[in-house]
Design goal:
With 321 residues, the protein is an alpha/beta fold. Helix content is 34%, strand content 14%. It has 2 domains: 123 residues, NAD(P)-binding Rossmann-like Domain (Rossmann fold); 168 residues, NAD(P)-binding Rossmann-like Domain (Rossmann fold). The protein has 11 helices and 11 strands. It has a 6-stranded parallel β-sheet, with helices on both faces. The protein has a 5-stranded parallel β-sheet with strand order 2-1-3-4-5. α3 links the parallel β3 and β4. It starts with 10 loop residues before the first strand and ends in a 12-residue tail after the last helix.
């Protein structure tokens, strides 16, 4: 019997939200099967709290694949055997961390597993927006030969908000392009310094965690501080940016453009106003979707389960951390 009270090989592990499927049949699935019984739910529906609770049921461990699954107080209350939530990824905005802590549920994530891929995607979005690659590609396919002026990264200033693994790697890549990098973190910098960076930056890239105080981190006031030639990149969470304020700033060309991998509604709803803007480049929250990230991140999520069951947990996420 381990320190968790769960005998070796007796753990009941559920993956309630494997849609679109990445876990079923993976190396991580095989590894998890050595720890006990594994149930994988591969249909959409875990975005409903009641359905999520039913899927978790009497499981000891839930492996959280998708950020749409709401691990709320009600879900935890309905799953009294649950002792751990192991997240594939870093974000915890879909999990009530305070409720988990009150109920003695350990929450772990996989920091750094997708850092290289997401940082590369942020740079790719900067290039795509600045060099107008989607618009030019489309125009050429329509039979024209566009000759407009384009932007470059070399010699420009990048403001990076959030200095975790992703932000740090994005800064490294940006410097290799010859950019000046200004970094801001909640622990080390003030709001006044945030404003100074927004005024100076040619590109702004968001990598802060979504917490109650970072919801709407970039709003109308912050967008008004940015240069008319500035480009906003968001590979963090859609709710870091005020949706209406961003649309207005882009539509009225108060900033030059945006590269977005995350949105308030995922998938985007048909007719969403952001789809009508020519000065945006959009990707469907897939910045971290590489074979390497999938393999290594899922295996790390299961390694976190192994260590928890052995009584030596790591990568624990605490409330307000």
């Amino acid at each position: 019997m381990s320190m968790t009270g769960i005998a070796a090989g007796d753990a009941l592990i559920v993956v309630p939200d494997d849609f679109p499927s990445v876990f079923e049949g993976s190396a991580a699935h095989e590894r998890a099967s050595t720890l006990g019984t594994v149930r994988v739910c591969g249909e959409r529906g875990a975005d409903d709290a009641e359905e999520l609770a039913q899927r978790i049921g009497d499981a000891h461990v839930a492996v959280n694949i998708r950020a749409y699954a709401p691990f709320t107080e009600a879900v935890f209350a309905a799953c009294p055997n649950l002792r751990m939530v192991s997240i594939w990824g870093v974000g915890t905005d879909n999990i009530d961390l305070e409720s988990a802590a009150r109920r003695g549920i350990t929450v772990c994530n996989t920091p750094g597993a997708n850092a290289i891929a997401v940082a590369e995607h942020a740079i790719a979005l900067m290039l795509a927006v600045a060099r107008k690659i989607p618009q030019i590609d489309r125009a050429m396919r329509e039979g024209t030969w566009p000759r407009e002026m384009l932007g470059q990264l070399h010699g420009k200033t990048l403001g990076i908000f959030g200095t975790g693994a992703i932000g740090t790697h994005a800064a490294k890549l940006a410097r290799a392009f010859g950019m000046t990098v200004l970094e801001w973190s909640a622990r080390n910098n003030s709001i006044a310094e945030c404003d100074d960076i927004l005024r100076a930056a040619d590109f702004v890239s968001l990598h802060v965690r979504l917490l109650p105080w970072t919801r709407g981190f970039i709003g109308a006031r912050e967008l008004a501080l940015m240069k008319p030639s500035a480009i906003l990149i968001n590979t963090g969470r859609g709710a870091l940016v005020d949706r209406a304020a961003l649309y207005d700033a882009l539509a009225q060309q108060r900033i030059a453009g945006a590269g977005l991998d995350v949105f308030h509604d995922e998938p985007l709803r048909p007719g969403d106003p952001i789809l009508s803007l020519a000065n945006t480049v959009l990707s469907p929250h897939n910045a971290g979707q590489t074979p390497e990230v999938r393999r290594d991140g899922l295996l790390l999520a299961i390694e976190n389960v192994e260590r928890f069951l052995a009584g030596t947990p790591r990568n624990i996420v605490e409330p307000n951390s």
